Amino acid sequence: MNKSAKFLGLAIAAAILQSCASLTLENVDFTWPVESALTVSATNTIEDGRYSIVCNVAPLATKEFEDSTALRGATLRVLRNVEGYYFLTGPKFKHVYVFTTGVSELSMKSAIEVSQTGLVSPKLNQHPPYVELLDGNNQRKLLTKDEIVEEKK
Asked: Nearest Cα to 127, choosing from 140, 137, 111, 136?
């Protein structure tokens, strides 16, 4: 094998190895500008075509209400924050659930207790770096993925 053939072989191998290297896109902002209000179907699923999310919420209904069918017909509030966490809650919920993504799954990161009696008419808003939870007349809480950081009534 001559020198030019060896060099060509090494150049091709280097190009192939470089194309296999991992790629990281940094400083990604996962924020959704507004929450999605999604109605739970008869099959216990919510779907949002705008942000391409579909998931079964029966396990969430079981966790929050001890009834896998408790959310049918309910309108859930879903918002994705700047870090890529999904915040989810709804009427009568005592918690805001925070989920992280995996391969074809949302895994609970935390369940933040926000009411002892259940929310009435919750709304989620971006309030960077926090997610703002509003419920009723001036009930306001600022949330991180783990906790309430500010509460105003």
From this structure: 140
